[in-house]
């Protein structure tokens, strides 16, 4: 019962945050300098034609009215028309979002699985030469900017060795009948490999270092010493007790990392011409395509908020001290 | 006296701190008879916890057993291979830690932690393990329904009972209790001690009770080992330690603690000063700087003198102990140490 109440209040908070994000987004784009219609209104258009066009997009109404229309539309899942593509923003995002999510999650899952295992291993082998060599290496990967790493990956695996394609999600001319068909094809996976690897290399440092330092702390805990005094096997002590407890903050960082990764995607998607939300966002802002940029921002904010909720719930699930508090 | 269950001979344990070695336990010898409850007392840093942990051979990373023997059931625990030692842990030697809060894993239920020991170490099946867990909870007086609770859901005293249940799980021959009641208030302390004593008598297990509190020892132990600065100052039966303490340190300790039974024994008299730094202990008797009875001869290594059968004392003046006891009972004696 208590749990339901906690989840309920969490959902209410979430709704509030969402409303704030939506409002800020609305104001942000209205405050930006320049007339967005400039790109679409030909100087030869008559004033009447211009006004007609403005009215068509609803830009002739006062700000508060625009805000209400905007909120009303959002509630119905209506994100407006893209200025540039002249098609519904929702439809555009629907095509791009899966690409971004697949890239984000595949790279993060690889990064976290690797980071958690390697971090636990390095903590266990504390003071060995393996650790001495690995820590500077990890710090180096953390320090490499992802656009640079992306270009190096392209230079090596695509341009020089020719093993993997350089950009996009599929080879030209290939057509697929549906989502599943595309995303499980060899073609798509080959295109995914480089950008995902770039993001994974960039992201593994955080979970690795976090896991390692947590492990080192937990290994000093009394319950780990007690597990040894109980004569439990080394594996049981390290994995079931030390790693299990060290994992808690790392899992939270995963959810938060998804949010960061979506920002990082803007760069990597551009480097690899990956048709995702990040690249579209950059293009939309550059082209003053307000509805599309707004929609893309909103989508990213939604994922971040949702992942934070997931982190909270996951933590409560993994740590009995939270769920019973 | 029959063959003791545990016989520690000249045990030495050192910690490496930087380039220095701290000899935390510097030649400790004592016996633990079967079915006894022995108090291992001394001030913080005297090496009592180090001795306790050395018996399980789970010691700090920078520590090592550098000498001596730990004879347990015909085996020298200081020498046997790690694998053999690990097989013996918990099945023969169990441990009750000071703070049960930190020594229970917070993410698992208490039942899981009992089950882990019963099944992984005891080789019990799922059903047997459950039955044994219930039996253990009944033994330590906790409602069986609470088996599925997590450690943080128990009070301090209850957690200590859980720790006792865990220690009893595999019917060990020896239980080492390291300051088991120090973190608890006096009322709960007494309940836990009573329970420990009752279970110890009923099950016939031997217990080593590590504590700084001589009144706790006086309350439930039938033997005592008094440690000072890494060495055993005096050991013997509780009766001997209470009626005829023969090391000046034991005499001082008795004046410094109130009686757990509530009998007001008058003014408490502290022992002035602090224990020596074990990285560079004083030559000769280590208690000399704080001892009101110190003579010039105390600057040399003191001998172990048996003042009575089963009552060794590490003191040059052990044979004069009857006279010293009279002096030691006076508060003035301790006000101006020699």
Automatic annotation (TrEMBL), chain A:
It is a multi-pass membrane protein. The keyword Cell membrane applies. SUPFAM superfamilies: MetI-like. Its main location: membrane. One of its GO terms (cellular component) is plasma membrane. One of its GO terms (biological process) is transmembrane transport. It is found in: Cell membrane. Gene3D superfamilies: MetI-like (1.10.3720.10). It holds the Pfam family BPD_transp_1_N. Keywords: Cell membrane, Membrane, Plasmid, Transmembrane, Transmembrane helix, Transport. Coiled coil: none annotated. The chain crosses the membrane at residues 12-32, 101-124, 145-168, 188-210, 246-263, 296-318. InterPro entries: BPD_transp_1_N, MetI-like, MetI-like_sf. Residues 97-315 form the ABC transmembrane type-1 domain. The keyword Thylakoid does not apply. Belongs to the binding-protein-dependent transport system permease family. This is Dipeptide transport system permease protein DppB. It comes from Neorhizobium galegae bv. officinalis bv. officinalis str. HAMBI 1141.
């Amino acid at each position: 019962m208590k749990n339901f109440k906690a989840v309920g209040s969490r959902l209410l908070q979430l709704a509030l945050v969402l409303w704030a994000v939506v409002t800020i987004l609305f104001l942000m784009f209205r405050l930006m300098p320049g007339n967005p219609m400039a790109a679409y209104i030909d100087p030869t258009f008559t004033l009447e034609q211009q006004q007609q066009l403005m009215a068509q997009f609803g830009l002739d109404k006062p700000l508060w009215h625009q805000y209400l229309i905007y909120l009303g539309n959002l509630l119905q899942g209506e994100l407006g028309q893209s200025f540039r593509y002249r098609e519904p923003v929702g439809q555009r995002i629907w095509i791009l979002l899966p690409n971004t999510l697949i890239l984000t999650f595949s790279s993060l899952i690889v990064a976290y699985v690797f980071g958690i295992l390697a971090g636990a291993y390095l903590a266990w082998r504390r003071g060995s030469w393996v650790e001495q060599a690995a820590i500077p290496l990890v710090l180096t990967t953390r320090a490499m900017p992802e656009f640079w790493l992306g270009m190096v990956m392209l230079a090596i695996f695509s341009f020089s060795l020719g093993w993997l394609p350089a950009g996009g999600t599929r080879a030209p001319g290939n057509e697929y009948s549906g989502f599943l068909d595309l995303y499980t094809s060899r073609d798509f996976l080959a295109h995914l490999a480089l950008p995902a690897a770039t993001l994974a290399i960039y992201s593994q440092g955080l979970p690795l270092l976090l896991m390692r330092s947590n492990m080192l702390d937990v290994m000093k805990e009394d319950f780990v010493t007690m597990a040894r005094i109980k004569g439990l096997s080394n594996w049981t002590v390290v994995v079931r007790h030390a790693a299990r407890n060290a994992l808690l903050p790392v899992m939270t960082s995963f959810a938060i990392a998804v949010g960061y990764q979506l920002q990082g995607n803007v760069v990597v998607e551009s480097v690899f011409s990956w048709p995702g939300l990040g690249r579209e966002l950059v293009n939309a802002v550059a082209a003053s395509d307000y509805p599309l940029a707004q929609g893309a921002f909103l989508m990213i904010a939604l994922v971040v908020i949702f992942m934070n909720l997931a982190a909270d719930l996951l933590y409560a699930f993994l740590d009995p001290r939270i769920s019973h508090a | 006296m029959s063959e003791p269950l545990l016989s520690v001979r000249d045990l030495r344990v050192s910690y490496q701190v930087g380039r220095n070695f701290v000899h935390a336990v510097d030649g400790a010898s004592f016996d633990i008879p079967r079915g006894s409850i022995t108090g291992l007392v001394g001030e913080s840093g005297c090496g009592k916890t180090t001795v306790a942990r050395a018996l399980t051979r789970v010691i700090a990373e920078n520590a090592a057993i550098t000498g001596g023997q730990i004879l347990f059931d015909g085996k020298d625990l200081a020498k046997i291979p790690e694998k053999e030692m690990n097989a013996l842990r918990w099945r023969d030697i169990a441990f009750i830690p000071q703070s049960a809060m930190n020594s229970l894993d917070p993410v698992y239920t208490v039942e899981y932690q009992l089950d882990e020991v019963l099944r992984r170490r005891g080789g019990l099946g799922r059903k047997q393990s459950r039955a044994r867990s219930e039996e253990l909870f009944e033994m330590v007086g906790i409602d069986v329904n609470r088996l599925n609770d997590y450690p943080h859901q128990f009070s301090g005293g209850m957690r200590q009972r859980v720790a006792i249940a865990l220690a009893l799980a595999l019917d060990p021959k020896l239980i080492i209790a390291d300051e088991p009641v120090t973190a608890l208030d006096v009322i709960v302390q007494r309940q836990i001690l009573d329970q420990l004593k009752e279970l110890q008598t009923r099950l016939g297990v031997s217990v080593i009770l590590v504590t700084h509190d001589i009144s706790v020892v006086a309350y439930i132990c039938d033997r005592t080992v008094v440690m000072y600065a890494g060495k055993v100052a005096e050991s013997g039966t509780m009766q001997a330690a209470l009626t005829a303490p023969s090391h000046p340190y034991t005499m001082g300790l008795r004046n410094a603690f109130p009686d757990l039974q509530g009998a007001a024994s008058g003014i408490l008299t502290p022992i002035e000063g602090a224990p020596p730094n074990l990285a560079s202990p004083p030559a000769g008797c280590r208690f000399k700087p704080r001892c009101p009875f110190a003579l010039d001869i105390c600057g040399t290594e003191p001998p172990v003198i048996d003042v009575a059968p089963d009552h060794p004392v590490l003191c040059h003046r052990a044979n004069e102990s009857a006279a010293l006891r009279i002096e030691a009972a006076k508060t003035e004696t301790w006000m101006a140490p020699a």
